[in-house]
Amino acid sequence: MFVQNQLKSWIASIRSKTALPLRIELWNGQHVDLSSEAPRVTIRLPTVASARYLLNPSLANLGSAYVEGNIEVKGTAQDMISICNALARNTLKPEGKLARIVRSFTHDKSKDAEAIRYHYDVSNAFYEQFLDPGLVYSCAYFEQGDETLAQAQVKKIDHILKKIQLQPGQTLLDIGCGWGALVMRAAQQYGARCVGVTLSENQYALARERVAAAGLAHLIDIRLQDYRDVTGQFDRITSVGMFEHVGLKHLPNYFSIINKLLAPDGMAMNHGITSTDPDNGETPYGGGEFIEKYVFPHGELAHIGNVLKTMQQGGLEVLDVENLRRHYARTCALWTENFEAHAEQIRPLAGERRFRIWHVYLAGCAYAFEQDLISLYQIVCVKAGRRSSTLPWSRNYMYAQENTQETRPAPVLTP
């Protein structure tokens, strides 16, 4: 009876603050609607004990309860995330543990490899269900805003290769190469001699297969290798969706390594997720805690200001910075749509628990990017102190060809 009274009081408090299209189904068969609008989300509490998750609805608590099966939630992932954020915002104080806290993790080659395998080695077939045919697992680039996901991913790669002014026959290192889409495009379009490194065994195996099938093995070397073990120098270096795994304390060293691997007249580009908190804090209301526990172990996001500072500490000069936050919100929304459309195929590949993790993770990322809780920046840089006469005077070279090209579907990289 005590818990029921607490829950009744909590529901009255939420109703007084906002109207949510949410139905709460109780363990005794009764239900309560939190607005007169038809419910878009239903949260079922199977036992009296499960009510505690609603009484303290941090994103970590609700997310964990859903993943572990302690509550049941019905609705689209987009609606689930929106309503859970509203519950947290109208119940909890955004301070203390629920604030944008900064946590630091130990990063070494063994721990980093373990974290990468946890996230990326689910199975290649799992990722094929919601990514584009080229298996590009990073922010797409919607030049006009109406591109398909496949078109926008190819445009993203082309945008990067133009930004770094890749020239025919140059050498290119791709740190965190995924399933090889960028190096394949660089080899196909520019004849670049590429090295791609990944710590994911699944990515490594499939990327090598794709390279061989495309007849590009003479131009592309895919390696199962830590970026800290790469030697030599490269005309161009790209890092797409990888530096989030480096760790805040290690960013100066990470950029120092890129500097060391970069040829004297080379150019590099870092594409990665950043915190929008000036103090490098994670997303609020326990969202960051959920991500660290279930999705990206030991992941750390730096504010763009800290990224630029550590680049300079690593001996690199920043030439160009572009914010693609809105592009990633759209990318994650499309991934979420694909995920839900292929739910029946994904469940046996992932298992019910991991299915639930990814169901809320993808939609949660779309929400976080849309609400400016996290962001995405592409940063072009060169070795500090390079003669200015060798650098472009404007950004025209990045866009001239894109803006004058014929309006036709972008080519799609096939697995």
From TrEMBL:
Residues 14-92 form the DUF7884 domain. InterPro entries: CFA/CMAS (IPR050723), CMAS (IPR003333), DUF7884 (IPR057206), SAM-dependent_MTases_sf (IPR029063). The active site is at residue 365. This is Cyclopropane-fatty-acyl-phospholipid synthase. It comes from Janthinobacterium lividum. GO terms for molecular function: methyltransferase activity. Pfam families: CMAS, DUF7884. The keyword Transmembrane helix does not apply. SUPFAM superfamilies: S-adenosyl-L-methionine-dependent methyltransferases. Belongs to the CFA/CMAS family. Signal peptide: none annotated. Coiled coil: none annotated. Keywords: Lipid metabolism, Methyltransferase, S-adenosyl-L-methionine, Transferase. GO terms for biological process: lipid biosynthetic process; methylation.
